[in-house]
Design a protein that fits this description.
This protein is of the alpha+beta class. The chain is built from nine helices and four strands; from the N terminus they run ααααβαβββαααα. One of its GO terms (molecular function) is oxidoreductase activity.
Length: about 290
Amino acid sequence: MSIFLELGQRPDEPGPPIHGPAGYPADVAARLADDAAVIVARYPDSRSALLPLLHLVQAEDGYLTPAGIAFCAAQLNLTAAEVTAVATFYSMYRRTPTGEYLVGVCTNTLCAVMGGDAILETLEDHLGIGAGQSTPDGRITLEHVECNAACDYAPVVMVNWEFFDNQTPSSARDLVDALRAGEPPMPSRSGALCTFRETARTLAGLPHPNGADDTAAVGAATLAGLRIAREHGMSAPDAHGPASDSTDEAPGHEQAEAADAVKDQPAPAPSADVPARGQTAETDPTATDAS
């Protein structure tokens, strides 16, 4: 029996992996080079600046083009193939023209069961487009996205990677209507909503276009576990218990005994000092032998 595997881009992806204009006019290239110099100077190895430079050219074109790929390659002394390999790996780099607002509906497990699938279907019907497509006015590109680590506020809709929490089909319709009307609402966790290209410049590490403060307080849902732990007097066990001097017992017995003593206790909280610096399995009775 023979099996045929067709490799390459998905059938619904238009054109080659990277398409569009092949180069920039001289004035555009010079302007981008000035921005690129600021970005590259932050890294001891210039090629480490590739990801922010991809955001920079995405801010210029609204998606990645051969012009953007060639520009990044020239700035970092890389080949176009090397840049393309990175650019096509990450979903944040767009391969097709993207609207002013990239609206992403999380359809991963928790958001889906909380209504994410219904939100996506509602928006597809309301906007008259499918996931991965843009409205004729160029305002909105709709897509379904993987988990954005915002499960505590599911279902979540993201606009240019800004969170809009606890959405419903109705609120999501209102959201896209406001975007199309030129009245972008305030995101749940930041001070302003930028256009797709403005967001890309920010992700490149350049100043926020409107100087807005993107800091936001941590929400109650995120802190729920910590609040419950405090109400019940829960805390992490001491990770620095006294070391045992016994040498008569079989190797590994002390470690097994220590592990049994704490098996019903809560796991230690994350910490840069657990185990303590310089502590090894020989000096830490709670350490286990990874070998």
